[in-house]
Amino acid sequence: MAKKLVIIDTDCGIDDAQALMMALAAPNIQILGITCVYGNASVENVCQNILRVLSICERDGIPVFQGCAGPLVGASSSRTDHFGTDGLGDVIKDKDPRWKEKIQREHAVDAMIRLVSENQNRVSLVALGPLTNLALAVRVDPCFPQKLKDLYIMGGNMEGKGNLTLCAEFNFAMDPESAYVVLEEFLCPTYLATWEYASRNSLTWEFFEELINQDAPAARFMKTITSKCWAYSREAMMKKRGVYFPGCGFVSYDSYAMAACVDGTVVTESIECPVRVELQGSMSRGMLALDRTNTLKKSHKVFVLTKCDSAKFSQLLLESLRQPCNK
Ligand SMILES: [Ca+2]
């Protein structure tokens, strides 16, 4: 069976690392390249985090490209209060002083355009961070979206619930203009794993313990980087996510978008409708609006995921931490 060709655009925090491992473990996926963007950490830290994950999974041959360091509009910023300053929980002491030599010289946006142009209508793009690299790609090459097979995004919200600001989800709130551009101009089949989708399809904390206590280097790595991170603390999350989603358990956000790409049958229900990102609101800037009554008269619809097959999703997560594997 021909493998699915994938480019992963990421701001590598802990859940991005988990999602990347899911792609690395999937026998039907071939990763053409990984493009880095600021977000959970500075883009320099993101690059180093990706190299580390690839090294642990013994897949160092996959090219890594450095991309944007800040949003299209407004001050350059990365948020370091969720997964620590370095994006991976601030527990890794040994840094690779020669990491820059392992990053490709080509810019992430150029690499994305080249790889997709070389494999037209065959590449799935999985976007796990702020959408700045994607927005720039369509500005540099207006035909870029139509050369894609499909697009999977972790980002946005479908119920107006925010986790960075009152009404906006982290990845969209970090760069609302880029999220707007992508959802207006990428007319390829598009699948959105929103904050509420992930939260409403959470797994139990007992499963999380089983996941990270597997006997493999990737699992040990995940156990280490989640060990001091409040976002993986049951008590902290009960106070934060639990306000919106009572009983909400362990959530690996980016893994939901990746799982939809790896195995479409993981998604059991979705809403197909036009969407638009709010740019003006004083409280809702970066919020995703679902247009279920066609008020905006847009022709392009996206799939807003709503229900997930938890058993299949759990299995993908378990396999993702049994690495390195012989692939
Ligand atoms: Ca991410």
From TrEMBL:
* SUPFAM superfamilies from the UniProt entry: Nucleoside hydrolase
Q: Which CDD domains match?
A: nuc_hydro_CeIAG
- Name the domain of life: Eukaryota
Q: Name one GO molecular function term.
A: hydrolase activity, hydrolyzing N-glycosyl compounds
Q: Which residues form a coiled coil?
A: none
Inosine/uridine-preferring nucleoside hydrolase domain: residues covered: 6-314
Question: Family, per the entry?
Answer: Belongs to the IUNH family.
Q: What is this protein called?
A: Inosine/uridine-preferring nucleoside hydrolase domain-containing protein
